[in-house]
Amino acid sequence: xxxxxxxxEDMKPYGPVRVALYASVGSNQIDANAxxxxxxxxxxxxxxxxGWVVVAEYTDIRASGCARTGLISMTDAAGNHxxxxxxxxVEDIDKVSRDAxxxxxxxxxxxxxxxxxxxxxxxxxxxxxxxxxxxxxxxxLRDTRxxxxxxx
Length: 152
Prior knowledge:
disordered N terminus; 4-stranded parallel β-sheet; 4 helices; two-stranded antiparallel ribbon; alpha/beta; 152 residues
């Protein structure tokens, strides 16, 4: 009999991993809705191949300076109890934000809620990039606090 630690990473003792999808496109694309649907199709296919169950989909058509209502709604949902999903799947980290500080904030919040972000096409260095980004974010916050306290 397999113990829980012997089970494949993508399977839980109580069934497949519940996943939320997040897709975003720029508003400057010629057919943003078609691009969004194409991205969601690729994400759904990736989940299907891994045996994951898609339980929610969040989307944004980004315009400069506009709030990302889909990303905010997804983050809010991750904080609910019981949590509706265990992972978030995005095509690439720049779909969350192209700004490293903003991306690291969302990564840490979602991880804190127990719903880490996974990348559909992880580059060889993506895990390292995520760790470095979050680490830089902590360093900037620490240095900002020191400056604010007159130590910097």
